[in-house]
Write a structure and sequence with these properties.
mainly alpha
Length: about 160
């Protein structure tokens, strides 16, 4: 498979909820892609859905929560975003945007740009400040995942 296709695959992986660039960066590094090109591609892919999530996801989820086929899933998404938002507010106090940055930036399951942006939308946070916090969090998550991947791959190549 040619290199540019693998970069495109990483771009699209970084757009997928729950996995985002937390999977795309290690995947790309494991495939031998140049991190100097991989990181910006994954960051752009991870951030591209953010405005759509912020302005429209809440409306779509609220519209669909009582629909027969999609209702349970949409309700789950609303509850997940709401719980994330409540946790942020409880822990953050006045440092809500810093808490959003950490929530997005610490790569653990259930966090990331999608969940953080949905939580910011559900909390009616300022869009511009939220985007800055989310992009900073995405940069942190990408750095952590890259370092962890290099550490694991470096240790594995030692043996």
């Amino acid at each position: 498979m040619s290199n540019y296709i693998e970069y495109i695959i990483c771009f699209f992986i970084s757009m997928v909820p729950l996995v985002e660039l937390r999977v795309a960066v290690p995947f790309g590094i494991a495939r031998g892609l140049d991190p100097r090109l991989l990181y910006p591609i994954c960051i752009i892919g991870n951030m591209l859905p953010v405005p759509v999530i912020f302005f429209f996801a809440r409306k779509v989820l609220e519209w669909g929560k009582d629909k027969k086929v999609i209702g349970k899933f949409f309700t789950f998404c609303l509850e997940k975003g709401h719980k994330g938002g409540v946790k942020l507010q409880e822990k953050a106090g006045r440092g809500l945007y810093f808490a959003l940055f950490l929530f997005v930036g610490i790569p653990v399951p259930g966090t990331g740009a999608w969940t953080g942006t949905l939580a910011a939308s559900l909390l009616d946070m300022n869009f511009k400040k939220s985007v800055v916090a989310v992009i900073a969090g995405v940069l942190l998550a990408g750095t952590i995942m890259g370092l962890a991947t290099f550490g694991v791959l470096g240790a594995a190549s030692f043996f």
